[in-house]
Amino acid sequence: MDIGFVGLGNMGQHMARRLIEAGHKLYVFDTRREAMEKLVALGAQAASSPADVANRAETVMASLPTPDSVIAVATGKGGVIEGKLVKRFIDLSTTGSRVARQVAEALASRNIVQIDSPVSGGVNGANKGTLAVMVSGPKADVEIVKPALDIIGRVFVVGEKPGLGQTMKLANNMLTATALAATSEAMVMGVKAGLDPTQMIEVINAGSGRNTASVDKFPKSILPGTFDFGFATGLMMKDVRLGLEEAKALGVPTEVISAVGRAWELTCAEIGPEKDFTTIVQPVEKRAGVTVRARR
Ligand code: NAD
């Protein structure tokens, strides 16, 4: 099918590439020219704006960094809302349920359907097509796009209401953020007491402390000191803030996630929001006076 794709960053470039490789015709747009060139070299057609993408395809997907960028691309001037051909907008970004509902309402005024479709599984999952894809939207439209979403990862249809897919994603990312923050403190404690960090990870992964940070982020990016897992600290902070906002709006306690949010805020302030999210260990290391790096 013809698919428009806006936002070709860490995640979008892989998802768009996989759609091309599966035989779909892609119209792409990104504010960074070099991001578009990569996809054009693989057979995509470059568009000049989100509206231009939406003039050429009935289905438009977006993988954008922030809720504001999604609102602008979907409903702003030169946005998807102005497209002549577009029938459905699939948001693969993490924006929270409030923004999903806002975008859905604005697009509905032009008979464009909004489908929540945030993803989880990182750059590696995007590359391999193994993401968890959390979809909510009108059944008929979801059925039309499911074969394309199957190429990106495993599709979970969580409901029809706009925002439900986003709530699912925030619940997931509250846990990702917590696992990485908590594992950082546990690892720094062990190293300061004299344990070997590589062995600690082996033990944790054979025991009940096993989590996504101990399985992936520590072995791949923290122990080797590369800090290149592929997700920015600022984006993780955004997801934690959205999770907090969502929980508060629903009247759900936020003791744990509030504390986790403070660790991410500190990392944004001290290390920088543009740095990889695995740097969350660094403020803990600095205060303890040790580093958690592989010794062998
Ligand atoms: P990114 O910053 O690497 O990519 C975003 C892309 O959007 C960039 O290429 C940027 O140039 C482009 N862009 C920004 N504003 C634009 C605009 N107005 N018009 C067109 N293009 C624009 O971000 P990412 O890591 O790929 O994440 C994208 C989304 O996916 C985020 O919402 C993030 O929370 C979510 N996500 C990321 C990961 C991950 O591991 N990186 C995993 C799951 C979900």
Notes on the structure:
Helix 1 packs parallel to helix 6. The protein has 296 residues and is an alpha/beta fold. The chain has 2 domains: 159 residues, NAD(P)-binding Rossmann-like Domain (Rossmann fold, 3-Layer(aba) Sandwich); 122 residues, N-(1-d-carboxylethyl)-l-norvaline Dehydrogenase, domain 2 (Orthogonal Bundle), CATH 1.10.1040. It is built from 13 helices and 9 strands. Helix 7 links the parallel strand 8 and strand 9. The structure holds nicotinamide-adenine-dinucleotide (NAD).
Which characteristics define this entry?
296 residues; alpha/beta; Rossmann fold; N-(1-d-carboxylethyl)-l-norvaline Dehydrogenase, domain 2; three-stranded mixed sheet; globular; binds nicotinamide-adenine-dinucleotide
What can be said about this structure in brief?
This protein is an alpha/beta fold and 296 residues long.
Task: Indicate the structural class.
Answer: alpha/beta
The CATH architecture designation of the largest domain is 3-Layer(aba) Sandwich
Catalogue the ligands: nicotinamide-adenine-dinucleotide
What is the third-level CATH name, the topology of the largest domain? Rossmann fold
Distance between the termini: 50 Å
Question: Ranges with pLDDT <50 over ≥5 residues?
Answer: none
